[in-house]
């Protein structure tokens, strides 16, 4: 069974809903959320909205869950790898002296860019669909190094300690080149150039490597310049422009990137690896090392989270080259220092936002421009920068004139890449802080102003259209609970009755940000699954989708169980193994529930058809009157029933024609319905010191129907944690030579238990008709909200606007001093 | 590399391991199949490798194994089993206080140490006790709730025990027999 949907195939008939919403919006009050149409799904669920126990919970709490590094005991002859990295920011490797390292007892091999086992082909490490939109600008080991941390050589030895010692004995001589660290300086004609023409293949728009430009893009709906000119000429409108800046952020992925690579007795190459993208990795390894795809097997055990850092073939090629050199299984495990200096990060950005708006709060034009620092290589460079606009701007889909443009620039700093939110955290910071600032300058309530312009059911979804000049994917929004998110969030944070502290120097304020994300990459997703029945009435579910720790496997079992009419624990999930499971694009872009989950539903429905056929034989009733539930096939007309176990045994061992009951399902679609949310922050600011305390965070989320609400809450609370860090304490810095200042957790400001304020999570249920049982996505949505909501809360408390993340007490104090100076 | 032998009282059993002088306690535990403790930073900064040494929670990645020679070491493997979880483990499961799970063994070992010392902590005390253990997935909310829940569960068991009901053992696990621990050889099965 398969379904491939085009937006045009699904005319949803939301006209009446839209009329009702329009009425609500015209009157412009939040309380009108109550008049939103009833979007809830019919409550016919047994398994979907229960908090089924996470299927790996018991092995996690007993320490038995196996992550890649825990498989070492399966390989008595396992060797250990270590990467030798560049300690200069830009230059060419003149020579590598490996003799001292090779002379150490216990060293199997030392590999360099000049060895035969190391491919010299260009490739992209981005775990994206084929052909990757990201440029092919990497080689496995690098003769031309472009940042402090670039891999130049690697060592493989009998134990980790010997590998470390040998790595320190590899002697590399460089011819140094000038380096550039500022993205605006990188544009200069006389800036050092990172890539020569033969060092990169790039099919993205607007690339110009003579100016270190990896991509330039822009799109426009309407006529933005004319709208600005028009507004500037009128008394009842104005044009407001703001600028915003964000730093690097580390994924702080708990399990460092780890790979075990070996070749089995059938001469097939096997990877046990911490990846979000097993199938993309299989394809990329096959291309890079020129081996058939069928001879590569990529398996994902439990993984210690990814957050996008493992949507990358970041270390697998080095592990495999070391394995080829050593001739025995190799484990390559990154150190925390490598995670903080050499792996992958959220792109730093500078953004400019400009709107034309009437005094009544109607937005006539929006213009967003972003400059993204891609670092030394271009993995996910353009696509992340695209999301800066395409995720938050569609929050306001009725603005007639919209423009979005961006430049993605190389510097001699670490690589930006995919990170949870994928450009949307940067974009929401600019758009949602800007919207708040506009409202305050117009003396409008920031929340009412937002709702006056905000998305409603029936609006066109512009998320893809913005960069296509409006001519593609003009799907409608079919589920939107954003007004209920705002209403309930306001209540929870106490927006209307905030008490000020007694002390004169303390000021309390509340800020809000609207949030949107997607559910998969529109038009670029594929998930697939198979269900096979066991004779005792249980099932095996084989699914390509990747559980990175979120509980996706549990969610899959609940979806299958809902269709098959059995408890979730009767569905054994086998996931994310390129030999054993159907294909899947992988765990990214908030696609797992919406895409892979829908494939599971389709597979289960396919199997259910066979169950009903067998039920019909056993019960002697037509399949049309039968259904599944409570571990049985039952008749809606007579109440007769047969247990799944009876059906399983009869189908497998009966006298009649026998059959293994199977089902298969695909899902691919152009749809990517946005989940919505509202982030609230309650803050108290000390005007004397600039120090601020977060009193409370509230996040209200519309993710459609929340499958396993406890797991959904966990996604929200964890996403807010990352967002809190981004706003208050994260960021990387470098010295004048590009050397990293942050080498580990001790220098990085990851929030601890004691740094977290009270958090309240609210689930607002809507029903997304294209999602499995009405579900949309949740994983990335909550990473977008705290920076703008906190900027807005500080503005509310003390009247100053913070525009650069993270916000320190010194920043607040400096802004307060400037404000006081301006008043004098 | 100089090799040596290390003797540990590991989860109640005397064990002898081969070790190199430079090895950390974490190196030796993981090399010998005790992989519940995770390697997250090798600098004692994340808490994923937390175990108990002589009853105190330590980050085993920065504990030289030589220093632990002869010590009593408790790891996650010595707590409950999947079908007989320790109340702290059960509370983490029931509160969905875990996602990827990489920090959880360390988090649970830190929590049991807290509850041994302070059976009825406030939320703030839980937050302070866990502040050296990082978690990237959960925002800590459900973890703190789980530890508070575990404190209630342990308190409940103690109350039952004082009432003359089933006793709990040193780890706070229920014993079915109702016999006082260590004073009966009925092995906990039959009274």
From TrEMBL, chain A:
UniProt-listed Gene3D superfamilies: Aldehyde oxidase/xanthine dehydrogenase, a/b hammerhead, Aldehyde oxidase/xanthine dehydrogenase, molybdopterin binding domain
Keyword Cell division in record: no
Source taxon at top rank: Archaea
A Pfam family the protein falls into: Ald_Xan_dh_C
Chain residue ranges for the region called Disordered: 1-66
GO molecular function, one term: iron ion binding
Compositional bias per record (Basic and acidic residues), positions renumbered to this chain: 1-24, 36-66
Keyword set, alphabetical order: Molybdenum, Oxidoreductase
Domain (Aldehyde oxidase/xanthine dehydrogenase a/b hammerhead): residue spans on this chain: 62-178
Protein name: Aldehyde oxidase
Organism: Haloarcula mannanilytica
Lineage per the UniProt record: Archaea, Methanobacteriati, Methanobacteriota, Stenosarchaea group, Halobacteria
């Amino acid at each position: 069974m398969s379904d491939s949907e085009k937006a045009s195939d699904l005319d949803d008939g939301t006209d009446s809903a839209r009329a009702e919403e329009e009425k609500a919006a015209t009157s412009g009050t939040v309380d009108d959320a109550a008049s939103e149409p009833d979007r809830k799904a019919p409550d016919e669920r047994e398994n979907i909205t229960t908090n089924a126990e996470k299927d790996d919970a018991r092995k996690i709490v007993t320490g038995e869950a196996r992550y890649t590094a825990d498989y070492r005991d399966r390989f008595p002859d396992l060797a250990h790898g270590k990467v030798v990295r560049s300690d200069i920011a830009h230059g060419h490797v003149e020579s590598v002296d490996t003799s001292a390292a090779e002379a150490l007892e216990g060293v199997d091999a030392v590999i360099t860019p000049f060895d035969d086992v190391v491919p010299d082909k260009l490739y992209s490490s981005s775990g994206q669909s084929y052909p990757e939109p990201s440029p092919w600008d990497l080689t496995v080991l690098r003769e031309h190094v472009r940042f402090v941390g670039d891999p130049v050589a690697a060592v493989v030895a009998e134990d980790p300690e010997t590998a470390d010692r040998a790595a320190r004995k590899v002697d590399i001589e460089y011819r140094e080149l000038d380096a550039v660290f500022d993205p605006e300086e990188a544009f200069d004609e006389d800036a050092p150039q990172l890539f020569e023409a033969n060092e990169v293949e790039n099919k993205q728009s607007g690339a110009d490597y003579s100016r270190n430009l990896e991509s330039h893009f822009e799109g426009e709906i309407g006529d933005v310049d004319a709208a600005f000119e028009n507004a500037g000429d009128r008394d009842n409108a104005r044009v407001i422009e703001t600028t915003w800046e964000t730093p690097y952020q580390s994924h702080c992925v708990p399990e460092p990137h780890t790979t075990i690579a070996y070749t089995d007795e059938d001469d097939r190459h096997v990877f046990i690896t911490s990846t979000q993208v097993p199938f993309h990795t299989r394809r990329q390894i096959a291309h890079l090392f020129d081996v058939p795809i069928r001879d590569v097997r990529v398996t994902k055990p439990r993984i210690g989270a990814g957050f996008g850092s493992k949507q990358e073939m970041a270390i697998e090629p080095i592990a495999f080259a070391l394995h080829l050199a050593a001739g025995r299984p190799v484990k390559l495990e990154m150190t925390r220092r490598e995670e903080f200096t050499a792996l992958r990060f959220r792109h730093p950005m500078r953004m400019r936002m400009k709107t034309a708006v009437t005094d009544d709060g109607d937005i006539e034009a929006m213009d967003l421009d972003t400059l993204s620092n891609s670092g030394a290589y271009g993995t996910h460079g353009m696509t992340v920068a695209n999301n800066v606009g395409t995720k938050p701007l569609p929050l306001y889909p009725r603005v007639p004139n919209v423009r979005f443009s961006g430049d993605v620039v190389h510097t001699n700093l670490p690589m930006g890449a995919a990170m949870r939110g994928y450009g949307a955290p940067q974009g929401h910071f600019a758009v949602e802080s800007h919207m708040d600032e506009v409202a305050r300058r117009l003396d409008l309530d920031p929340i009412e102003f937002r709702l006056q312009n905000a998305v409603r059911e029936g609006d066109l979804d512009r998320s893809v259209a913005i960069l296509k000049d409006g001519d593609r994917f003009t799907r409608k929004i079919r589920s939107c609970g954003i007004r209920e998110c705002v209403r309930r969030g306001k209540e929870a944070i106490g927006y209307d009755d905030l008490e000020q502290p007694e002390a004169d120097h303390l000021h309390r304020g509340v800020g809000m940000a609207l949030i949107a994300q997607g559910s998969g990459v529109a038009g670029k997703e594929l998930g697939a699954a198979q269900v096979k029945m066991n004779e005792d009435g249980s099932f095996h579910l084989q699914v390509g989708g990747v559980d990175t720790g979120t509980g996706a496997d549990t969610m899959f079992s609940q979806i299958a169980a809902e269709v098959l009419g059995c408890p979730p624990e009767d569905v054994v999930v086998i996931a994310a193994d390129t030999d054993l499971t159907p294909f899947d694009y992988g765990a990214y872009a908030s696609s797992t529930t919406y895409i892979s989950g829908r494939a599971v539903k389709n597979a289960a429905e396919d199997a259910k058809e066979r169950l009903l056929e067998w039920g019909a034989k056993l019960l002697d009733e037509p399949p049309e009157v039968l259904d599944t539930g409570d571990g049985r096939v039952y008749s809606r007309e007579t109440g007769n029933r047969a247990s799944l176990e009876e059906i399983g045994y009869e189908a497998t061992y009966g006298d009649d024609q026998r059959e293994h009951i199977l089902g298969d399902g695909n899902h691919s679609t152009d749809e990517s319905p946005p989940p919505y949310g509202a982030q609230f922050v309650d803050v108290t600011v000390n005007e004397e010191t600039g120090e601020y305390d977060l009193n409370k965070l509230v996040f209200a989320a519309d993710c459609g129907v929340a499958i396993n609400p406890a797991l959904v809450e966990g996604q929200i609370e964890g996403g807010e944690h990352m967002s809190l860090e981004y706003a208050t304490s994260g960021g990387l810095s470098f010295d004048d030579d590009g050397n990293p200042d942050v080498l580990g957790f001790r220098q990085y400001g990851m929030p601890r238990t004691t740094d977290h304020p009270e958090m309240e999570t609210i689930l607002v249920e809507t029903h997304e008709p294209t999602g499995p049982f009405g579900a949309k996505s949740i994983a990335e949505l909550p990473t977008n909200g705290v920076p703008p909501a906190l900027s807005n809360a500080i503005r509310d408390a003390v009247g100053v606007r913070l525009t650069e993340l993270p916000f320190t007490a010194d920043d607040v104090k400096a802004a307060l001093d400037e404000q006081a100076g301006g008043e004098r | 590399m100089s090799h040596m032998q290390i003797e540990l009282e590991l989860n109640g059993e005397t064990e002898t391991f081969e070790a190199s002088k430079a090895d950390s306690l974490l190196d030796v535990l993981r090399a010998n199949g005790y992989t519940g403790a995770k390697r997250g930073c090798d600098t004692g900064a994340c808490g994923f490798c937390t175990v108990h040494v002589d009853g105190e929670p330590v980050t085993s990645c920065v504990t030289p194994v030589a220093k632990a020679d002869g010590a009593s070491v408790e790891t996650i493997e010595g707590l409950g089993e999947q079908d007989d979880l320790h109340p702290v483990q059960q509370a983490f499961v029931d509160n969905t206080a875990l996602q990827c799970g990489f920090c959880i063994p360390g988090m649970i070992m830190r929590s049991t140490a807290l509850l041994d010392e302070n059976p009825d902590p406030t939320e703030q005390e839980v937050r302070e006790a866990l502040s050296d253990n990082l978690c990237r997935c959960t925002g800590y909310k459900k973890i703190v709730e789980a530890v508070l829940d575990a404190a209630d569960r342990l308190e409940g068991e103690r109350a039952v025990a004082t009432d003359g009901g089933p006793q709990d053992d040193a780890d706070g696990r229920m014993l079915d027999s109702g016999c006082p621990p260590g004073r009966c050889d009925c092995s906990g099965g039959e009274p």
